[in-house]
Amino acid sequence: MFEFYLRRICAEFLSAFIFDRIKKRELRKKICDKHIFVPREALDSYIPTDVLSKINASSNEDFIQTNKNISINTPPPQHKTHHGFFDFDPDSKNPKSRLNPWGYIRVKNEVHTLAFSLESLLPAIQRGVIGYNDCTDGSEEIILDFCAKHPSFLPVKYPYEIQISPPPHKSEHNKLYKYYEYVLAKIPKGEWFIKLDVDHIYDAKKLYKQFYLPQKAHDLLYLSRINFHIYKDEVFVDKLHEAKDQPLLRNKFVSFLPLMLDGCLIEEMRSKNTNYYRSELCQYHFPYIKQSRKQTLPPEGFIPLSEFKKLGFDTQKIDPKMLEESHILKLYYKFNL
User: Fold this and answer.
1) Residue 172's pLDDT is what?
2) Are 64 and 212 within one domain?
3) Domain annotation covers residue 337
4) Domain residues for 145?
5) Is 195 exposed, middle or buried (0-12, 13-18, 19+ CB in 10 A)?
6) How many CB atoms lie within 10 A of CB 194?
7) Using CA of residue 208, residue 199, residue 176, residue 262, what is the dihedral sign?
8) Same-domain pairing of 181 and 325
């Protein structure tokens, strides 16, 4: 805590001599921000020993199979919508705990990946809000069915059309950042949330373990990703992306602002954070199944997974088991293709 305040005081002092607001903010971030990478082999050291042994004794598939048996007609016991790794730690029952984040999920026409993506994250995520807009492919029906089976997840239909390109927009309500604000408003202030996407398959065990990394209320966790593509039963990949679009953080001092990128008006999330954590790969991203990006041939820059592995990769950032081609194909074909 002392180090945090020392960095902040130093940043405020030095930025006082700069009058450009953008440069002032950049200097503050450069001084105050602390990026912490936790190697895969060190991640377990953040978890209480008795909890860790129970987590490691279970698999994602154990919980996925159990959660499949939940029926709308036979609702689960009160306060128990599904099971997961969170069952092993009493702290995860605290609504204010980083171990119990809200899933912050947005959907538009993702019928092919939606059901299994949601299923894959259940062993790590106890509750969530699923915002959706302009769905015409059956995604809305899947969301409503999922939330009926798992009532700790709330469906949130955005009542306005979203326009990204080209401007001008009809009104502020038609802009993406307003939609994001609308969904975020359903998450209580001061509670943790994690931004998740439904063209991903999550390794719930690896995901849940990373919830232990933030140590302070102002900390933030980022998830890394690799983009995958399947062509003729062969796996293609691009690279490890140390992205910033899937954060775990507290819903405090969080805002969305409009951002112009390549002629499209998208959103930019801002928050007041200082310590930024990152650890091993815990998900598979399949961006080219989405209807808006649909592509059959491997995209430019993608290489066969076998070639990617020959080139070598950092095993502290990627568990070699995550890159077993047969396992990736088995997961992929659980999508509604």
Assistant:
1) 85
2) yes
3) no
4) 36-332
5) buried
6) 23
7) positive
8) yes
Nearest to 239 by CA among 189, 302, 284, 311: 302
- CATH code assigned at 179: 3.90.550
Do 27 and 172 lie in one domain? The reply is no
Q: Are residues 5 and 96 in the same domain?
A: no
The count of domains in the chain is 2
Is there a domain that residue 56 lies in? yes
Q: Are the CB atoms for 145 and 118 separated by under 8 Å?
A: no
107 inside domain: yes
Least Cα distance to 283 among 212, 223, 222 occurs for 223
pLDDT (0 to 100) of residue 2: 45
Q: d(Cα 167, Cα 171) in Å, to the nearest integer?
A: 10
pLDDT along the chain (337 residues), means of 10: 50 50 49 82 97 97 84 58 95 97 96 97 98 94 96 96 72 88 96 97 98 95 97 97 95 80 62 88 95 85 97 97 98 95
Domain presence at residue 281: yes
